[in-house]
Amino acid sequence: MGEIASLRAAGIVVLATVTSLEDALAADALGVDALVVQGPKSGGHRGTHSAATEPDTRPLDELLAAVRATIALPLIAAGGLTSAADVRRVLDLGALAAQCGTAFLRSPEAGTSATHRAALVDGRFTETLATRPFTGRVARGLRNSLRHNSMQSRRSAIPQCTNSPGRCGAAATRDGDAEWTRLWAGAGWRAGTDLSGADVARLLTT
Ligand SMILES: Cc1cc2nc3c(=O)[nH]c(=O)nc-3n(C[C@H](O)[C@H](O)[C@H](O)COP(=O)(O)O)c2cc1C
Q1: C-beta 79 within 6 A of ligand 1
Q2: Mean pLDDT, to the nearest integer, of 153-175?
Q3: Tens of pLDDT along 111-131?
Q4: Which superkingdom heads the taxonomic lineage of this protein's source (predicted)?
């Protein structure tokens, strides 16, 4: 029995994140229960099935429609959904549910660092960028010096970090240096609030 079949036989519901129709077809063939269709506005990493894959750049609604037209599995839409209207829209397009991440980044329950939280409301940061160097896979975050410099490389050979490794990542976060912290965020970060997770969920669904 394959790994996914074993999990399902044990009563575990198996979801696969997909970022293209090709990944969706591959996941369907493996026998998963449902697909998380993750569009280009998503915060953090996009769950491509291999590091080399270029995730689809089509807007979420188009990607969702393409998967809906081809695959009968339940679909969960993700990426850039920050309001009840956004959630209603993807449900109307045939999604069974919506998955939101960025909308919760400032909630007290989120593990977001103080440096990251402050950056999410700092007018200095005006856009997000999707780059690869942190893990090799495409991931979106606020455009700061770290992410801007990372655009030059596919992996973590970021000159400022190589020359001064202590200044990047955890040390920068601890020191409150938002320019050299990994500021994960989706394109809809400005709609975020500091409400509790329960209140954010209520806003997204009513
Ligand atoms: C801080 C953060 C880290 C994330 N890390 C991953 C990850 O490692 N792998 C993944 O497939 N998705 C990751 N995601 C994406 C979420 O699973 C979800 O699809 C996404 O947050 C939905 O888009 P939104 O951020 O616009 O709401 C991450 C999202 C955030 C906000």
Answers
A1: yes
A2: 63
A3: 999 999 999 999 999 999 998
A4: Bacteria
